[in-house]
């Protein structure tokens, strides 16, 4: 039976809070009374577009209006768990002065290893991941990088990030062992002329990266170019696009991003778990919020890599929590 006093209480309390916020109504009585009261509240919520959040022996918590979809407005490609990033290793032949994960020839390898990569790739399919992205460090330093890539590409389309400087000798053979139908290469190149790129990444690195792009094209790979552009070089954006056009990089494959204040970089954007849309990232040490901070404890989600689905669920749940907290803050702190 509908409890009229309870319904009146619900109507009055709902008027006292903004849409999206919660309010409580007191409950009392024996188990049968509480069951009836909960049914009344549930029915009222369904009819009026509100939401029963929880009920105890003493009170029910109700949201005024429905909770907004915390993932609304996010590009489907960016939904947490759509892409899976894996750090194959952390050592690198370069030591760029803004490397977000502090890679260099002296950095410990910390390889994920082909067995774990293979298990992650298999579990990724089950977890609904659509694309695998392998990064480092420089993945072509690994003697088994072709096996690591094959372990991914048999399951899902795979993108391999590299500085493109090592495509010669046995490493070129490893590149040739990869399937251009399933593997995209993403090569780092920061400018249309050597000066800027070399000033951050080392002498002759620009020319070797451009050669790497040419070789990758000759081997039949789709090549994306990823550039890090400090704010003071923003005026060079359009000439850089024109240069990339001239070497055969499609506009949609020209990935230009701002400098992040992470790793060894002394300036750039401050990126935190509150400001980043997560990209689930696995390293030998654990699961991280985003590849830009895969070397930083503040973005370590869990040290448990397996099962992968649990890790993805945890990242997604934490992201939803951040979004809902941000929405609640917006509702409760009107400025005028
Ligand atoms: S930015 Fe890339 S190429 Fe440069 S040191 Fe880091 S991992 Fe190596």
Describe this structure in words.
- The protein is α/β, with parallel strands linked by helices and 336 residues long.
- The chain has 2 domains: 62 residues; 234 residues, Alpha-Beta Barrel (TIM Barrel).
- 35% of the residues lie in helices and 17% in strands.
- The strands form 2 sheets. It has a 9-stranded mixed beta sheet.
- Strand 10 and strand 11 form a beta hairpin.
- Helix 3 runs parallel beside helix 4.
- It is elongated, with a radius of gyration of 26 Å.
- The protein starts with a helix and ends with a helix.
- The mean pLDDT is 93.
- The site of iron/sulfur cluster (SF4) has 12 residues, from loops.
Break the fold down into its secondary structure elements and pairings.
Elements: H1 4-14, E1 22-26, H2 31-48, E2 51-55, E3 59-63, E4 83-87, H3 114-126, E5 131-135, H4 145-153, E6 158-162, H5 169-176, E7 183-188, H6 194-201, H7 205-218, E8 222-229, H8 237-246, E9 254-258, E10 281-283, E11 286-288, E12 300-302, H9 308-332
Helix pairs in contact: 3-4
The chain binds iron/sulfur cluster.
Iron/sulfur cluster binds at residues 92, 94-96, 99, 103, 136-138, 163, 188, 201.
